[in-house]
Design goal:
The protein is an all-alpha fold. It contains 3 helices and no strands. The termini are far apart.
Length: 78
């Protein structure tokens, strides 16, 4: 009978702004740690992880840039 009101009342509400802030903070701490370990340790382990992280960041940056450029091109055509 009251499926809609039940679904609405059961919906989980997340504070996305707080989640993003926490995620960004944790990511920054992790990358700073890995960067420090890569510069101090002679082992290639941390250097390899830092390379992987940097490749991921570069890929994500390129995806965002291509989407922005694609959106501008679509607006110009209209």
């Amino acid at each position: 009978m009251h499926k809609r009101s039940f679904k609405t009342s059961q919906k989980v509400v997340a504070d996305v702004k707080a989640l993003r802030k926490t995620l960004a903070s944790d990511y920054k701490i992790m990358t700073n740690y890995i960067s420090a370990m890569a510069s101090v340790k002679e082992d290639v382990y941390y250097k390899d992880i830092l390379t992987i992280i940097n490749n991921g960041r570069s890929y994500f940056s390129n995806v965002v840039l291509s989407r922005r450029m694609g959106n501008k091109d679509a607006k110009k055509r209209e």
